Amino acid sequence: MMKKSTFKLTLITLLLLCNNLHAQRITLGVKGGLSIPTISGGTSNNPLFDSNSFKIGGDFGIYGEYNLSATFSYSIGIEYSSQGGLNKFQAYPTPPDWTQYGFGASVYSNFKSEIQLNYLIIPILARQHWRINNKYNIYAGVGPFLGYLLNANRRVTSGPIYSDQKRTPPSLISPQLSNG
Questions:
Q1: What is the pTM of this model?
Q2: Would you say 117 and 58 are in contact if contact means Cβ atoms under 8 Å apart?
Q3: Which residue, among 104, 77, 83, has the nearest Cα to 92 in the 3D structure?
Q4: Contact present, 61 and 76 (Cβ < 8 Å)
Q5: Is 161 helix (H, G, I), strand (E, B) or coil?
Q6: Is the Cβ–Cβ distance between 180 and 161 less than 8 Å?
Q7: Tens digits of per-residue pLDDT, 98-111?
Q8: Pairwise CA distance, residues 17 & 132, whole Å
Q9: Residue ranges per structural domain of the chain
C-alpha cells in the first residue's frame, strides 16, 4: 500500500517537473487574415460559365505550438475560414414551364452567382522556422487538416432576361413570371 502511494507521488512530481522544464517550448497564439478563394469551372466558350472571380472572406483562429528545437515544431489549431467565389455567366437552364412563353433551352442575362462556404478547420502541422532578425522569423508548415462545413449559401441575381444570346426579348412573359 505504501509503495503505490509513493509511486503515484513520484509520478506526479516528475510530470510537474517535466511540464515546468518544457513550458518555454510551448507557444499559444492567435492568427487572422483574409481568405481570397475562387471557384472555377467551365470555359469562356460555354455561356453557362462566362467568368469566375475571387471573393474575400475572413480567416482567424487560435493555435498551440510545441517547439522541439529552435527551428522545428509541431502545431495544432482551430480556425474559422470563410471561402467561396463569384461567378458571372450569361445563360441559365430554362425552367420547364417557361418554354410555353417563348423561351428556348436556356435564358440569357447578366447573371451573378455568389457562393459562400464557412468552415471550421483543425490544422495539424510540422513547422520549420528560420530567424530573420531578433524580432522576426518565418516558417513553412506542412500537414493534414480536418475540415467541417458550418454552412453554405448561394445567391443568384440577374438583369433583364432574354430568349437568346442576341438579347431578343421573349414573345410573352406572364405576370407571375415577371413578379416572382
A1: 0.62
A2: no
A3: 104
A4: no
A5: coil
A6: no
A7: 767 666 677 777 77
A8: 33
A9: 26-172
